[in-house]
């Protein structure tokens, strides 16, 4: 199995975050985000499709069939449009599973342990175990030494991995970086575990210096650690070897810690990237999880969770109703998902995934360069295909391209289905929107933008706690340098877009 360079050969190999000057401002807490109210327990959609009872006569039934067909046709058209403008979330939309349509007539359910037969015969365990064996080879663990199953989503993989850690060490403390996926902290709440949040480096990677301080403060209790193989927002990869080294230096022997690796997206990409931290069960890790609907491209949410056989007995129990054993979290599990995963793994293989990883990394660097050339601050971790940049102030643009945002930053996740043409369309539209917003806002602020031959399109997110806004984002525009802090604050106060200020 060959690996590809994390950085395209024409680049110098440095992590592309050195001149990313945007100070990240966390989103405001409360019931509103960017003017959009979030209400739990209420339908916030503008429309919903009502379910009505069918009529008794056949003629009305025919009318209803026609109505439902038209609804589905419109929905399909909407899906095609939304798929066309999809960049903010890690889903590989480049797939064709037409050959599997023949199986949609069956209720395939993988109840219980995938390695043990059940009384329920309409299952796909043979496909599931084949997929698990493939990932076991990828992460270097023998068939006789692992246990795993195909989950309903990436969150379930994290819930299971952390649950195994908690069962191995009932009094253990969960350590996770602040940029870990929210499901990690959900697990801590569900299992009523003590949880310590560890600080991060600017890249989003776990800060092992802070990790060591917090380990030493709890030396009397075992450690359960979540290691990110690609953080949600910045795509940062925690240094697994350094995490293990930090544990050992802090006096934690291997029988006093459990490591779960959250590889939701990059868990399948890292094995094909040169110089990437190697995720392998030859190291003292307890479990690894990865999503199946992200890089693999399964059309339904699913994931893979693998742990050591020695750990699973603490969870497994007999289920007489199934004539089987069960150590999974959910009861019924989608039996179609393993077939979709098996089909893709067979079609692509290691070489196919290697090519897709190479494509994603190249296109991610292309996007980062295009954004910077347009005067937009952008960041790209060396091992990542997640490009982070200044959050657009136009919320319609954010929704159109389905961008994932946090505070004053947004990101694009470059997946195999994302083409150069789509990235060009995105950047061109972004630059146009920023220019339009800049002109409107500059008129409101009575700033003349016509006397610059080549005005930058930078739309700045200002952290008002700092004195020099131009240093925050690396903007070199003379008006940004000469404007006083009071002027900037006054302009922002008059700006209904809150802390966003545009200067051209």
Automatic annotation (TrEMBL):
One of its GO terms (molecular function) is carboxy-lyase activity. Signal peptide: none annotated. The modification N6-(pyridoxal phosphate)lysine is found at residue 294. Belongs to the group II decarboxylase family. Its cofactor is pyridoxal 5'-phosphate. One of its GO terms (biological process) is carboxylic acid metabolic process. Keywords: Decarboxylase, Lyase, Pyridoxal phosphate. The keyword Cytoplasm does not apply. It comes from Populus tomentosa (Chinese white poplar). It catalyses: L-serine + H(+) = ethanolamine + CO2. This is Serine decarboxylase.
């Amino acid at each position: 199995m060959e690996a590809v360079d994390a950085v395209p050969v024409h680049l110098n190999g440095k992590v592309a975050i050195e001149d990313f000057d945007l100070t990240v401002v966390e989103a405001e807490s409360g019931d509103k985000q960017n003017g959009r109210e979030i209400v739990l327990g209420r339908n916030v959609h503008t429309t919903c499709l009502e379910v009505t009872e069918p009529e008794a006569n056949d003629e009305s039934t025919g009318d209803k069939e026609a109505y439902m067909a038209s609804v589905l046709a419109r929905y399909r058209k909407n899906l095609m449009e939304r798929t066309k403008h999809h960049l903010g979330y890690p889903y590989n939309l480049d797939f064709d599973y037409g050959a599997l349509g023949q199986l949609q007539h069956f209720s395939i359910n993988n109840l219980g342990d995938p390695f043990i037969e059940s009384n329920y015969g309409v299952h796909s365990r043979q496909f599931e175990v084949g997929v698990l064996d493939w990932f076991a080879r990828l992460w270097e663990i023998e068939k006789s030494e692992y246990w795993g199953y195909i989950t309903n989503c990436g969150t379930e993989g994290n819930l299971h991995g952390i649950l195994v850690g908690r069962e191995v060490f009932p009094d253990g403390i969960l350590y996770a970086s602040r940029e870990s996926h929210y499901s990690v902290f959900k697990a801590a709440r569900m299992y009523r575990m003590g949880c310590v949040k560890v600080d991060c480096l600017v890249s989003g990677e776990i800060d092992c210096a802070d990790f060591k301080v917090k380990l030493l403060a709890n030396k009397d209790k075992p450690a359960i650690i979540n290691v990110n193989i690609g953080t949600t927002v910045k795509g940062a990869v925690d240094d697994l070897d350094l995490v293990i080294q930090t544990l050992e230096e802090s006096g934690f022997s291997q029988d006093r810690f459990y490591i779960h690796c959250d590889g939701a997206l990059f868990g399948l990409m890292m094995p094909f990237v040169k110089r990437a931290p190697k995720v392998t069960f030859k190291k003292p890790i307890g479990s690894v999880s990865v999503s199946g609907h992200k890089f693999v491209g399964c059309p339904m949410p699913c994931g893979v969770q693998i742990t050591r056989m020695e750990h699973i007995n603490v969870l497994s129990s007999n289920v007489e109703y199934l004539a089987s054993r069960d150590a999974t979290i959910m009861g019924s599990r989608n039996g179609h998902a393993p077939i979709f995963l098996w089909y893709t793994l067979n079609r692509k293989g290691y070489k196919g995934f290697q090519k897709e990883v190479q494509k994603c990394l190249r296109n991610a660097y292309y996007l980062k360069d295009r954004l910077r050339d347009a005067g937009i601050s952008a960041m790209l971790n060396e091992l990542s295909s997640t490009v982070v940049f200044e959050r657009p102030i136009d919320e319609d643009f954010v929704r159109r391209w389905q961008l994932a945002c946090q505070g004053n930053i947004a990101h694009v996740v470059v997946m195999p289905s994302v083409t150069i043409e789509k990235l060009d369309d995105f950047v061109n539209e972004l630059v146009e929107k920023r220019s339009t917003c800049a002109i409107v806002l500059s008129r409101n602020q009575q700033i003349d933008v016509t006397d610059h031959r080549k005005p930058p399109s930078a739309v700045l997110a200002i952290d008002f706690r700092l004195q020099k806004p131009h240093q925050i984002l690396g903007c070199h525009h003379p008006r940004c340098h000469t404007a006083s802090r009071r002027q900037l604050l006054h302009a922002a106060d008059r700006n209904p877009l809150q802390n966003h200020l545009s200067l051209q």
